[in-house]
């Protein structure tokens, strides 16, 4: 049997009375491009925070490469091979693109340059982060994620705030990632993007996973349509 890369079992996270995640099971296998969707406040970012060690689940287990990581700190989780982006980018504003990415690459300049090339920012590698457009900042965040050579990359709404042209470019980039067999758990609200570029999609509603399947199955799932899509999504 092939062991899965990441196993979330009955992951629950409460904030006082609010149950942000309620017994969520999620499996990510090597090479998966797993999308995670759900209405605002359904717990998507909370799950990313639990997996990356920024929050400690109230109960449940998270296993990465066979090791329970619920008690691990973000830094050591990153070292074991999970990288993440933030819904709101957190760059070092006074550093250049290259310098920002080098920080995540542990100072490896050549590898940082490769990551920058991968996301299409080579031409502006010497520009300070404070002078980037929002789209460029998002791409730099992805490059920083790649720079730690993760076995699993967590992306949190990397398309929010982008215009339609930028979204198309980002879809292409993520499709390239999928083709090259990267393992990605990708939270997104741009439905068109996730329907096109994910292999599988899980759906959260009020902290519970209500569906999981191929994009086509999810687009036609009555529960998902009622909870989220509003109307049938045409692929
Ligand atoms: N640090 C926190 N303290 C209190 N409540 C939180 C915290 N983080 C998230 N929440 C709450 O948990 C719920 C899920 O939030 P979140 O995971 O950010 O949703 P999503 O990313 O799906 O929009 C929301 O009701 C949010 O207000
Ligand atoms: Mg969120």
SSE order and pairing:
Layout: E1 6-15, E2 18-28, E3 33-37, H1 44-51, E4 59-64, E5 67-68, H2 74-80, E6 82-84, H3 97-104, H4 109-118, H5 134-147, E7 152-156, H6 164-179, E8 184-187, H7 191-197, E9 200-205, E10 208-213, H8 215-219, H9 222-229
Parallel strand pairs: 3-8, 3-9, 6-7, 7-8
Antiparallel strand pairs: 1-2, 1-4, 4-5, 9-10
Helix pairs in contact: 3-4, 3-5, 4-5, 6-7
Bound molecules: adenosine-5'-diphosphate and magnesium ion.
The site of adenosine-5'-diphosphate has 11 residues, from β2 and α1.
CATH class of the largest domain: Alpha Beta
Q: Helices and strands: which structural class?
A: alpha/beta
Q: Identify low-pLDDT runs.
A: none
Distance between the termini: 33 Å
- What is the annotated CATH architecture of the largest domain? 3-Layer(aba) Sandwich
As a whole number of angstroms, the C-alpha radius of gyration is 17 Å
Helix count from the secondary structure assignment: 9
Q: What are the bound molecules?
A: adenosine-5'-diphosphate, magnesium ion
Average of per-residue pLDDT values: 93
Overall geometry comes to: globular
CATH topology (level 3) name of the largest domain: Rossmann fold
Question: Nutshell version of this structure?
Answer:
The protein is α/β, with parallel strands linked by helices and 235 residues long. It contains 9 helices and 10 strands.
Which features does this protein show?
2 domains, 10 strands, binds magnesium ion, alpha/beta, Rossmann fold, globular, binds adenosine-5'-diphosphate, 25% strand, 235 residues, four-stranded antiparallel β-sheet, six-stranded mixed β-sheet
